[in-house]
Amino acid sequence: MAADITWTGAGDGTSWSQAANWNPQVVPGEGDDVIITLPGTYTVVLNATVSVNSIMLGGESGTQTLRKSSGTLTLAAASRIGPNGVLEMLAGYITGDGVLTNEGSIVADAPSWTGINNSTLINEGELVHERGIFYIASSALFENRGLYRIAGDLNISESGAMGTLLNTGTLEKTSGEGIAAIGVLVDSRPESHIRSSSGTLRLDATSTYHDMTFHVATAPSGIIFNYGTHTFRGTISGEPVGRVTVNTSIRAHESGGTLNFTGTGLQWISSYLIEGG
């Protein structure tokens, strides 16, 4: 029978799979609502494939970390990471019908890969992509309302049906002198920002940009539209110090599109402007 299962840490203080760490003393499973809100600074390690109804991570004080080190985590209902919560994604997918909303921190630090699969992740805090491939797989939706920080020459990729990165916040490459490639559909909405502060951010899939701004902070850095067809809607702005480069087709939206670039401007090196208003 489904129940609230609350972290106490009364066992070894670390293992998700140890019943003594929970109240009541059972390991959370399918249908259970998992509550990790005990004040203090500690880490809960999940190293198995688990299905639960929901998770609430983050208490009133301290830092509560859930380290997902292997397997798939399936969420059936709405789940939340509070301002003091940290989800470390070291491997495997998060999946399920439950929308996961992050108001704290997510760290994608996978030696190989991690990501979301046929599910929805809403980031209202910060997601730091430190290692590995981050998959937005099987029509998954990642809605970035806060900061998605790509801290290296790392890729955001699709697997199966194309996933979507809906950006209403800031998407930024902050370190690494090489290339970070985004291979999923990007839908960057009004007042959003796409920024490269180090190296090159490459946009590799058909995408749409609406009344938003591109930033390139330093001359060696850049943003490049490299594959697919990219639709500009409304006013697309930028004051780049480095290069914003077009190497694929650009489409003006039926309602019209305006380019408002100063600085080094928008450099068009290949392909066409097609259709549009």
Characterise this structure.
With 277 residues, the protein is mainly β. The protein has one domain. 44% of the residues are buried. The mean pLDDT is 97.
**Fraction in beta strands:** over 45%
Distance between the termini: 58 Å
Query: Rounded to an integer, what's the Rg over CA atoms?
Result: 20 Å
Low-confidence stretches: none
Q: How many domains, in number, for the residues?
A: 1
Could you tell me the mean pLDDT?
97
Helix content: under 10%
What structural category characterises the helix and strand content?
mainly beta
The counted number of beta strands is 32
Short overview:
The chain has 277 residues and is mainly β.
What's the arrangement of secondary structure elements?
Blueprint: E1 4-7, E2 22-23, E3 33-36, E4 42-46, E5 50-52, E6 54-57, E7 64-68, E8 73-75, E9 79-81, E10 85-89, E11 92-95, E12 100-102, E13 105-117, E14 120-123, E15 126-137, E16 141-144, E17 147-151, E18 156-157, E19 164-167, E20 170-175, E21 179-182, E22 185-188, E23 193-196, E24 200-203, E25 207-210, E26 213-216, E27 222-225, E28 229-238, E29 243-246, E30 249-261, E31 266-268, E32 273-274
